[in-house]
């Protein structure tokens, strides 16, 4: 296929999508748009609205005006026309709308118009909205328009992220086509192709292989675009318009690779990344500030121009993204992506505000109106902040035992205490006994762990108090939710979510039992279990918690391939070491040390994670076992890692000698 036909086909799809989207409003509007519809049904919890776009919108009762006063059945009737703002067009099966926020923004916009404040914006993620076919009521968003062709000069570099190729927003449709049309001659004249790293190619390939059936119309369109982009990029690479060989195996994600390249070559080139991801935009803006180099990041308009946010605009957009994910967590509908984004953005926005002297943005309420029939401006309640633990704690003094009068058992009454409630619990049936204590059933989906006399220590008590005080909740992690005291008021244990499934030790790590319990599972199912395990570990690492005692007795899996991590009292955090460990999962640096006298590093943790991943996929086989050995795990680890270190050192010397840098497949971007 020629480049010309490839560009024509790919660009034709973009323009066809553009035309279809403008002529037929078949898809629900994006977040920030105002819509008008007719009330279809009313309940005390929500109002469903038919806006004529193939699906209903959902207005939770909290998003109705204050004068509704929690009684939507009395204030509204089926058939009433209602106008609302789109809050979340991708949540669940029904988009979420807000009338209260719409009134608030309208009031703000009217005040801005009276004061002559400009309202121009073309950013779909900015805190504004456009009513289709109606007036603009947006807050002012500052941005700069540049010609991206300037980054095709010989002393500059232009990169493109995955999401740009898969973009389905009609407001930006055709932008990539126009970029290549405008930059074609400059690229060839300077021999400076646009860089699409290997990780982006990998992500596009993975996305293009997804079966679009059963996906939403927008998602199916994005999958289709991924496949079309791969075809175009192959042809564009053949004629020198695109370079897609830059990358390495040390970064699992494209974002990390972009940051690595931008930092390494900032002194050599001025660089620009095209992306829609707010998080990577914040990270690169901070990097440019720290290095005092010209490193830009922005989006393409439909005309092929580069739109770059101001510092204030980017910070506000990042804060809105943080609040969106944090709200999902606070409402109990959050997933691991929400948890990870909140943890990352919390630190990132804090650094950004300090670097650029910015304050946390606030929603400006509308003016108070004496007429009681006018809606009171809605106050946005910030979700409970999720604060990570200290990333560089110092080792705490040695642990000491706690004194106690008695340890409760089955049938005894204990007191639970958490940040939001306290009360009595009766210990139910004994579910199991371990090396540190006993677990009892209680009402609901929770269990109580009571420590035995040898493991009731000050470190465990203070560690549990820290975890309970954070009010952390994450599916698959048995994080302590309350402290448990005996009748004398003494600390004896904690409440935690009840895990389901069975221990790895008794299923995956025993091949016969595994085949008997899960006869239909194959390697791909074991990979799913690895991913589920890594999601939990990733969240804990984002909170600066090290699992430390990773072993098959602390992990459980159910028939749906959901992994649960238990024994949170052994996790390492805030300088409290993990006092236990399993030699098979202990890094060479920790072998021979007393676990309770030292803090494990992230390298120690990743050694255990890698070992666990290998043993999951290989159904219990230890990675360093060899025939003819005596089975001494410690010696096997030391010998194997010693040989690995020698090979790694030799490889690094060879790479340096041949001119490669940091594992990158070429000397420069």
Q: How confident is the prediction overall: mean pLDDT?
A: 78
Uncertain segments of ≥5 residues (pLDDT<50)? 1-9, 11-26, 111-141, 362-385, 645-667
Q: Percentage of helical residues?
A: 25-40%
Which class best fits the helix and strand makeup?
Answer: alpha+beta
Characterize the largest beta sheet: strand count, sense, and whether it forms a barrel.
Answer: 7 strands, antiparallel
- Total beta-strand segments: 22
Rounded to the nearest angstrom, the radius of gyration is: 28 Å
User: Which strands sit side by side, in order, in the main sheet?
Assistant: 14-13-18-19-17-16-15
Which properties best describe this structure?
single chain; 669 residues; alpha+beta; seven-stranded antiparallel β-sheet; five-stranded antiparallel β-sheet; 36% helix; 15% strand; globular; disordered C terminus; Kinase-like_dom_sf; Prot_kinase_dom; NA-bd_OB-fold
């Amino acid at each position: 296929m020629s480049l010309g036909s490839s560009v024509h086909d790919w660009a034709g799809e973009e323009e066809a999508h553009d035309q279809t989207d403008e002529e037929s409003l078949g898809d629900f509007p994006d977040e920030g748009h105002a819509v008008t519809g007719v009330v279809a049904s009313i309940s005390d919890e929500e109002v469903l609205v038919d806006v004529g776009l193939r699906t209903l919108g959902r207005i939770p009762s909290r998003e109705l005006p204050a004068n509704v006063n929690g009684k939507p059945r009395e204030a509204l009737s089926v058939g009433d026309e209602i106008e609302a703002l789109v809050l979340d067009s991708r949540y669940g099966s029904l988009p979420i709308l807000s009338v209260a926020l719409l009134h608030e923004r309208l009031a703000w916009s009217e005040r801005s118009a009276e004061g002559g404040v400009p309202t121009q914006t073309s950013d779909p993620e900015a805190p504004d909205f456009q009513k289709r076919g109606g007036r603009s009521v947006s807050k002012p968003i500052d941005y700069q328009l540049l010609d991206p062709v300037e980054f095709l000069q010989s002393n500059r570099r232009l990169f493109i992220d995955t999401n740009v190729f898969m973009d389905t927003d009609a407001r930006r449709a055709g932008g990539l086509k126009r970029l290549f049309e405008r930059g074609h001659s400059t690229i060839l004249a300077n021999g400076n192709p646009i860089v699409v790293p290997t990780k982006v190619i990998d992500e596009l390939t993975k996305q293009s292989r997804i079966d679009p059936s059963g996906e939403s119309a927008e998602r199916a369109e994005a999958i289709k675009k991924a496949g079309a982009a791969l075809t175009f990029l192959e042809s564009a690479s053949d004629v020198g318009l695109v370079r897609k060989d830059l990358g390495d195996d040390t970064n699992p994600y494209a974002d990390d690779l972009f940051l690595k390249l931008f930092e390494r070559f900032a002194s050599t080139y001025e660089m620009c990344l095209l992306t829609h991801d707010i998080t990577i935009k914040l990270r690169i803006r901070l990097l440019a500030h720290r290095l005092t180099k010209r490193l830009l990041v922005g989006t393409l308009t439909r005309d092929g121009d580069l739109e770059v946010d101001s510092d204030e605009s980017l910070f506000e957009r990042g804060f809105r993204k943080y609040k969106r994910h944090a709200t999902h967590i606070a409402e109990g509908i959050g997933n691991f992506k929400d948890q990870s984004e909140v943890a990352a953005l919390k630190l990132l926005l804090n650094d950004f505000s300090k670097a650029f002297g910015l304050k946390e943005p606030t929603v400006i309420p509308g003016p108070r109106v004496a007429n009681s029939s006018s809606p009171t401006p809605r106050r946005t309640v910030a979700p409970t902040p999720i604060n990570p633990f200290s990333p560089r704690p110092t080792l705490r003094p040695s642990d000491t035992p706690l004194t106690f009068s008695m340890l409760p058992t089955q049938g005894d009454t204990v007191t639970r205490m958490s940040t939001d409630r306290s009360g009595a619990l009766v210990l139910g049936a004994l579910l199991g006994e371990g090396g540190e204590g006993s677990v009892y059933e209680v009402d609901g989906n929770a269990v109580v762990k009571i420590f035995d006399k040898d493991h009731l220590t000050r470190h465990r008590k203070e560690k549990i108090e820290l975890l309970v005080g954070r009010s952390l909740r994450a599916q698959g992690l048995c994080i302590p939710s309350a402290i448990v005291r005996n009748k004398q008021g003494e600390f004896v244990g904690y409440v935690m979510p009840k895990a389901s499934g069975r221990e790895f030790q008794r299923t995956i790590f025993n091949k016969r039992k595994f085949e008997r319990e899960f006869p239909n599972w194959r390697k791909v199912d074991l990979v799913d279990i690895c991913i589920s395990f890594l999601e939990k570990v990733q969240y804990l690492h984002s909170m600066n918690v090290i699992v430390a005692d990773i072993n098959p007795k602390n992990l459980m899996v159910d028939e749906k391939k959901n992994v649960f991590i238990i024994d949170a009292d052994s996790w390492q955090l805030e300088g409290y070491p993990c006092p236990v460990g399993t030699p098979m999962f202990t890094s060479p640096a920790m072998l021979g040390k007393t676990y309770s006298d030292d803090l494990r590093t992230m390298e120690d943790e990743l050694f255990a994670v890698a070992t666990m991943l290998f043993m999951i996929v290989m159904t219990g086989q230890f990675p360093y076992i060899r025939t003819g050995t005596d089975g001494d795990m410690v010696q096997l680890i030391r010998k194997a890692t010693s040989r690995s270190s020698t090979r790694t050192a030799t490889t690094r010397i060879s790479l340096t000698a041949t001119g490669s840098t940091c594992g990158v497949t070429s000397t420069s971007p």
